[in-house]
Amino acid sequence: MSRPILEVSGLTMRFGGLLAVNNVALSVQPKQVVSIIGPNGAGKTTVFNCLTGFYQPTSGVILLDDEPVHQLAGHEIARKGVVRTFQNVRLFKEMTAVENLLVAQHRHLNTSFLGGLLKTPSFRRSEKAAMEYAAHWLEEVDLVDVANRPAGTLAYGQQRRLEIARCMMTRPRILMLDEPAAGLNPKETEDLKALIALLRDEHDVTVMLIEHDMKLVMSISDYIYVINQGTPLADGTPDEVRQNPAVIKAYLGEE
Ligand SMILES: Nc1ncnc2c1ncn2[C@@H]1O[C@H](COP(=O)(O)OP(=O)(O)OP(=O)(O)O)[C@@H](O)[C@H]1O
């Protein structure tokens, strides 16, 4: 096994009297799909919020490539290549699909304000590269045909794929997806599964997934962590987790 890209130990998050996350440990290998599952309110999104710097954990250590990141702000963690989507779609709905991908690249554009005003050759080159990268990802997520439609008018599954493409604009190393299949029909969920596999297998992205769709989780995950009421319950391969009596009792048994 290679060195983990992300290693979490003793992760704890308290909201007043509520212990939302209690001593969670994760070890995430690069270029794998790692899922976090558990019943509603188990603390999954809170774990994501801690990993991405939205919350400062009450205690615990988060190592990204052996470097502690648990005290960094969200934008600093994002700059280190950890990006996420949210449970609800958060696109610029009035902008077209391609515009959503272009604005996401502004930090990567090697341009100055003056360069933009004067349309210098370096500005034009940079603009062209951004457009090519956006076009490439529109193709990868099968949205070329709707590139010029406002994002808010796309089908829900298309909006989900556009969000993932938008994350890819920042060339992330870890992509965290919070319930990406929620609200998708079976065909859209199959497309999502193929896209997640593509990110891992062709683009070397490590994908972390929070998901309630067990069919998707069991078929795409390399490794699964189960948490229940904030506390680690089990972890293992999909087969190991599926057969774990504690998991069946606490979670899968409910399905
Ligand atoms: N900012 C907050 N302030 C207070 N309590 C919070 C906050 N965020 C989450 N919680 C609480 O922490 C617990 C875990 O919530 P969390 O959203 O992480 O669960 P989850 O496993 O993602 O649930 P779901 O599957 O329903 O999305 C819940 O009891 C929730 O009410």
From TrEMBL:
Family designation: Belongs to the ABC transporter superfamily.
PANTHER family: CONSERVED COMPONENT OF ABC TRANSPORTER FOR NATURAL AMINO ACIDS-RELATED, HIGH-AFFINITY BRANCHED-CHAIN AMINO ACID TRANSPORT ATP-BINDING PROTEIN LIVG
One of the record's GO molecular function terms: L-phenylalanine transmembrane transporter activity
Domain ABC transporter: 6-254
Organism field: Atopomonas hussainii
Family matches, as InterPro entries: AAA+_ATPase (IPR003593), ABC_AA/LPS_Transport (IPR051120), ABC_transporter-like_ATP-bd (IPR003439), ABC_transporter-like_CS (IPR017871), BCA_ABC_TP_C (IPR032823), P-loop_NTPase (IPR027417)
Official protein name in the record: Branched-chain amino acid transport system ATP-binding protein
GO CC terms, sorted: plasma membrane
Alphabetic keyword roster: Amino-acid transport, ATP-binding, Nucleotide-binding, Transport
GO terms, biological process: D-alanine transmembrane transport; L-alanine transport; L-isoleucine import across plasma membrane; L-valine import across plasma membrane
Keyword match Disulfide bond: no
Top-level taxon in the UniProt lineage: Bacteria
